[in-house]
TrEMBL record:
Gene3D superfamilies: AF0625-like
Region Disordered, annotated ranges: 447-468
Subunit (UniProt): Monomer.
GO biological process terms, semicolon-separated: D-amino acid catabolic process
Protein name: D-aminoacyl-tRNA deacylase
Ribonucleoprotein among keywords: no
Cofactor: Zn(2+)
Class of the enzyme per the UniProt entry, highest EC level: hydrolase
Biased composition regions of type Basic and acidic residues, renumbered to the chain: 459-468
Length: 468
């Protein structure tokens, strides 16, 4: 069940609530709880097999105690429909609640409500679909109360001033995005609930475009986000490690993505001491939805992502590490860089690169096709990737055939032959340097002392051998 919290002290919240109730809801009565605290008349409906329950409270959202007990059953998560205030113009936005420093606007000091990154991703997608013309969509950093909640929650907001709070189209967009959550498969966790793919965001401004990109474009969800000003409110991270740990616990996260200042040694030391890994956006995008245990094994066997490891199209937890044919790869790269890299990426589980990930080089993990020593995961004791490796060699040899006269595939090498203009032969036949050299190099015959010199007369065969 999804719990929806409306505040009567917030007219945008009431307006969104009205738009929600324009759908087919059933009114019920709760005589055991005061109307001001979510009792009295409340409403229930069902969308895509998921139940919704809407309760209204007199107080502002940020000052509420945990509203969970007001609901007829324990919600999977709560959605606080609310106004957003700011100088941002028409905006639909969402965020989690908590305080990295003192609690000036509800909740407790250095305390955090449980986040639901999977719901946030689905809500942003709903905002994108339903936002009226002229409205933006944004994700905000963590701020204000309530913090002492027993279930995950987030704020779904209509902003950013009176015109929008009274705008039927804006209110309807928020309502529609909330009601669409079941159809988008929204769950509190992003990815596997037993091993969620969650990040805590640290740094940047109040609005969080970098972390928004991550949740939009990767399999990762973003939990609590501390802007630069909130990190200042936190104080020295080593002295407030318990608050950092609370933000990670409330996000169900073990990874941190740091925005803004690159030199945050005290913060990174505190995170390392707490056992959290600081990762880059490159790492997040490269890893995407791959099994995290497998990623750790591949980084150990090959190299870290931030030092050039990239992942291929093959999904296999059993793999063999093989040296790539670097000379052959370099020659194929000279023919077509994108296709040479793709030849590796299409066949590998992971591979080493250089030049910002654009050129495969070094070693690769190919899917293990053998059985001896295989336990179904990780690197095997008796790896056998010969079939895939041979297929790679054939693909690279095919690329060379586009620029060489003959390419021979041998068991231990690829041999490429090309007939090329030989200046020494041309000079021996009396061809003067200059335009005549150029014509012969371009495949044209020339006249020298009344005799025709064809290009074949001044060619030499160039042979390149690439060990495999």
């Amino acid at each position: 069940m999804i719990g929806v919290v409306v505040s009567r002290a917030d007219r945008a919240s009431e307006h969104i609530g009205e738009r929600l109730l324009a759908a087919d809801w059933t009114a019920r009565e709760d005589e055991d709880r005061p109307d001001a605290d979510g009792g009295g008349t409340y409403h229930r409906t069902s969308v895509a097999g998921e139940s919704f329950e809407l309760r209204a409270f007199d107080d502002m959202h940020i000052h509420l105690d945990d509203p969970t007990p007001a609901f007829s059953e324990r919600p999977d998560y709560l959605v606080f429909v609310s106004r957003h205030s700011g100088d941002t113009g028409p905006l639909l936005t969402c965020h989690f609640t908590g305080n990295f420093g003192d609690a000036e606007y509800g909740g407790s000091d250095r305390s955090f409500a449980p986040a639901c990154p999977g719901v946030q991703r689905a809500l942003v997608a709903g905002f994108d679909e339903h936002a009226p013309d002229g409205y933006g969509v944004a994700v905000e950093c963590t701020h204000h109360g309530p913090t002492e909640l027993s279930v995950p929650s987030l704020f779904a907001e209509l902003g950013s001033d009176d015109d929008q709070w009274d705008d039927p189209a804006g209110a309807a967009a928020v309502a529609r995005a909330v009601l669409d959550l079941p159809e988008r498969g929204a769950t509190p966790a992003a990815g596997d609930p037993d091993d969620p793919r969650h990040l805590v965001g640290l740094g940047g401004g109040h609005y969080a475009p970098r972390f928004e990109r991550v949740l939009r474009e990767t399999a990762w969800g973003v939990g609590h986000v501390a802007s630069d000003w909130q990190l200042e409110e936190l104080g020295h991270p080593g002295e407030h490690a318990d608050a950092l740990a609370a933000a990670f616990d409330a996000s169900d996260a073990r990874f941190a993505l740091v925005e803004g200042e690159t030199d945050r040694p005290a913060l990174e030391r505190a995170l390392a001491d707490l056992g959290y890994r600081v990762v880059s956006e490159t790492w997040v995008r490269a890893v995407d939805d791959r099994p995290l245990d497998l990623v750790s094994e591949l980084e150990a066997d090959l190299r870290p992502v931030d030092e050039g490891l990239r992942f291929g199209a093959v999904r296999s937890e059993a793999y063999a590490v093989v040296d790539l044919p670097d000379d052959l790869l370099a020659a194929a790269h000279g023919v077509d860089p994108e296709r040479a890299r793709a030849a590796v990426a299409d066949r590998a589980v992971a591979f080493e690169t250089r030049e910002n990930g654009t050129q495969a080089v070094g070693r690769a993990a190919f899917p293990d096709t053998g059985t001896d020593g295989a336990d179904g995961t990780g690197r095997t004791d008796a790896p056998d990737a010969a079939g895939t490796y041979d297929d790679l060699i054939d693909a690279l040899a095919a690329l060379l055939r586009e620029t060489h006269d003959e390419v021979e595939r041998r068991p231990d090498a690829v041999v490429a032959r090309t007939a090329a203009f030989d200046p020494e032969k041309a000079a021996t036949l009396g061809v003067p340097e200059g335009p005549a050299f150029g014509a012969l190099a371009g495949g044209e015959s020339v006249e020298v002392n009344g005799e025709t010199v064809p290009p074949t007369a001044v060619e030499s065969e160039r042979v390149e051998e690439f060990p495999v």
